[in-house]
Design a protein that fits this description.
The complex is a heterodimer of chains A (326) and B (259). Chain A is an alpha/beta fold and 326 residues long. Chain A folds into two domains: 221 residues, P-loop containing nucleotide triphosphate hydrolases (Rossmann fold), CATH 3.40.50; 73 residues, Lrp/AsnC effector binding domain/regulation of amino acid metabolism (RAM) domain (Alpha-Beta Plaits), CATH 3.30.70. Chain A is built from eleven helices and 14 strands. Chain A is elongated, with a radius of gyration of 24 Å. Chain B is mainly alpha-helical and 259 residues long. Chain B has one domain. Helix content of chain B is 81%, strand content 0%. Chain B is built from 13 helices and no strands. In chain B, helix 5 packs antiparallel against helix 8, helix 6 packs parallel to helix 9 and helix 8 crosses helix 9. The longest helix of chain B has 34 residues. In chain B, 45% of the residues are buried. Classes of the chains: A alpha/beta (326), B mainly alpha (259). Chains A and B meet through helix 2 and helix 3 of A and helix 1 and helix 7 of B. The complex binds adenosine-5'-triphosphate (ATP) and magnesium ion (MG). The site of adenosine-5'-triphosphate has 17 residues of chain A, from strand 2 and helix 1.
Chain lengths: 326, 259
């Protein structure tokens, strides 16, 4: 158990009856980072999280939270973590405040302390006005916010959020991201799962791309994108003869910021380090070659989806929208 | 230990709140359908019933014990339903991710179901009282009835919770429930004394713990201590074995489900 890691997972595996939901999964989450598990439906994200929050035993492998084994020291682990489930784990017949009071008792938080935490959490998630309504009448977003408040109540060292913004409107989503960043500032380590690319991209310090129970790539969104070989400049020529393309390729290869050049239909895909110098120089170079007329130029910054495609062979966006949630 | 008491009370409080907010279900829980059994069947079969066979002053007083135990049966077998829903909507997992003692959820459920069952037994005895059924063994007898009822209820609730943790869907749960409860009632001495049954039914009823429980409750209501005591003793033996079996099975199902 290395001292710097908040979470250490090694060779984790989980088999349900016949489904191998998680395969040989290893990862390390550092203190204070926001770590994302990104993957399509059924990738094994929730299963991994359930093992980490001690409600599911792994079939193989081990995981530790702040040095404590999730199976052997489950009780200790439960005192260190907060959890927000993917399903809205809400009792329709209780009010928002009653949910928080219930969890305060289950965590044995002293009464006065509990009341003050509850007041400030209700404020944080903007549920003060609805705190005394029965949750049956809450909207999906309100339930989600209540769920998050419940997860924060025990002042966890590590917070697990399973698809925290699933089904929220844009504004609520941004608010929740903002909360999550604030929590990070307070020193809380955060693990979230998501199948939104932009969420992983903008919120997470590091992500693991997980597909069919396996990690396909891991790193900061920036590094993962950079590993694709830089930004793409797509040239389309009006008269793309092999001859002209050859000349152009040779000329471009000499430029310092060009990383790679690949042919594409009627033109070239040039991988470059950054747009500032690359674009003007590429234009200039095309002008120096006789008969080479530009029809179009497109600048293409790699997105996380490209990373996803590169590592899994399919696009996360092509997945049909989540119809069943597990 | 103190901590666990706090957990169990907090969780029990939740069940009470839920019940008080489900107005419809509260009505049906407190103004129990079983009371209608007592009133309607009690009066309906009065003429048809043979007092000699019943060995009771009237059918209502005979039926009271059956209705009391049927109430225990229904409450007990339904005792796991809320946990089933908690399991299905993820609330149970949410609870299990907190550092509570694993048994607190179960204990809160026992506490709640037993409290409700106890109250209902008292309501039924009160209704029977209004129709002139006065328990021969008095208040002490009523206390014994409550005790026996709860002992039976514990085992039944354990069965129900074990089912809740084991079944794949709540459809399965309700099918098994329906499959269990009617034979338990008809193959017991709830509605007619064993003596009035055909031989094969008698044989089956003999192995039904319901029969033993009813045969202990009934003399407490219509006969008196001297007849009741040996029956109560037998019932206690049967119930201790029954509860031990059910709790063992329940604990296993629970361990498998939540670790
Ligand atoms: N209780 C279960 N019993 C059997 N199979 C299960 C169970 N829970 C999950 N699975 C299977 O395990 C696999 C991974 O499921 P998991 O819920 O971890 O996916 P996920 O990445 O969280 O997906 P989503 O984005 O839809 O939430 C799926 O194939 C799923 O069908
Ligand atoms: Mg999931």
């Amino acid at each position: 158990m290395s001292s710097s890691a908040a979470i250490e997972v090694s060779n984790l595996g989980k088999v349900y009856d016949s489904v191998e939901a998680v395969k040989n999964l290893s990862l390390t989450v550092q203190h204070g980072e926001i770590f994302g598990l990104l993957g399509p439906n059924g990738a094994g994200k929730s299963t991994t999280l359930r093992i980490l929050i001690t409600t599911l035993n792994p079939t193989t492998g081990t995981a530790t939270i702040l040095g404590h084994d999730v199976v052997k020291e489950a009780d200790t682990v439960r005192r260190l973590i907060g959890y927000v489930a993917q399903e809205r784990a809400i009792d329709r017949f209780l009010t928002g405040r009653e949910h928080l009071l219930l969890f305060a008792e289950l965590y044995h938080i002293p009464k006065q302390e509990a009341l003050s935490r509850i007041a400030s959490l209700l404020k944080l998630v903007n549920l003060e006005d609805d705190a005394d309504r029965v949750a049956k009448g809450y909207s999906g977003g309100m339930k989600r916010k209540l769920d998050i408040a419940c997860g924060l109540l025990p002042h966890p060292k590590i917070l697990f959020l399973d698809e925290p913004t699933l089904g929220l409107d844009v504004q609520s989503r941004l608010n929740i991201w903002e909360h999550i960043r604030q929590l990070q500032q307070q020193g809380i380590t955060i693990v979230i799962t998501t199948n939104y690319l932009d969420e992983a991209d903008q919120l997470c310090d590091r992500i693991a791309i997980i597909d069919r129970g396996e990690i396909r790539a891991m790193g900061s969104p920036k590094d993962l994108k950079a590993s694709l070989g830089g930004d793409g400049v797509w040239l389309t020529l009006s008269d793309a003869t092999p001859e002209i393309l050859n000349q152009l390729t040779t000329a471009l290869q000499g430029l310092p910021f060009v990383r790679a050049i690949r042919p594409r239909e009627n033109g070239l895909d040039i991988r470059v380090d950054g747009p500032e110098k690359a674009l003007p120089s590429i234009m200039e170079t095309t002008n120096t070659i006789a008969g080479c007329r530009l029809d179009g130029i497109e600048y293409h910054r790699p997105r996380l989806d490209d990373v996803f495609v590169a590592h899994t062979g399919r696009s996360l966006k092509d997945e049909p929208p989540a119809s069943t949630e597990t | 230990m103190n901590e666990q008491i706090q957990e169990v009370l907090a969780l029990t409080n939740r069940w009470v709140k839920r019940l008080s907010r489900e107005k419809f279900s509260m009505l049906f829980t407190l103004a129990q359908p079983m009371i209608f059994w007592l009133i309607f069947f009690g009066n309906l079969f009065q003429k048809a019933a043979d007092i000699q066979v019943l060995q009771a002053p009237n059918y209502m007083s005979f039926l009271a014990a059956g209705v009391v135990v049927m109430t225990v049966l229904n409450n007990g077998l339904a005792g796991g339903i809320d946990l089933l829903f908690d399991k299905e909507n993820g609330f149970l997992e949410r609870l299990m991710s907190t550092p509570i003692k694993r048994s607190s959820v179960i204990l809160s459920r026992f506490l709640f179901v037993m409290a409700i069952t106890g109250m209902q037994i008292l309501v039924i005895l009160a209704v029977a009282f209004l129709f002139g059924v006065i328990p021969e063994t008095g208040l002490l007898g009523i206390t014994v009835i409550l005790l026996i009822g709860m002992l039976f209820g514990v085992g039944l609730t354990a069965i129900s919770m074990a089912m809740a943790f084991t079944v794949k869907s709540h459809g399965d749960f309700f099918s098994v429930l329906g499959f269990l409860s009617l034979p338990m009632i008809f193959l017991s001495s709830a509605l007619v004394p064993l003596a009035a049954m055909p031989g094969w039914m008698q044989a089956l009823a003999f192995f039904n713990p319901m029969t033993w429980v009813i045969d202990a409750v009934r003399p407490l209501i219509i006969a008196g201590w001297s007849q009741a005591l040996p029956q109560v003793g037998m019932a206690l033996v049967v119930l201790i074995a029954f509860d031990a079996l059910c709790l063992y099975g329940g604990a296993k199902a629970f361990k498998r489900s939540v670790g």
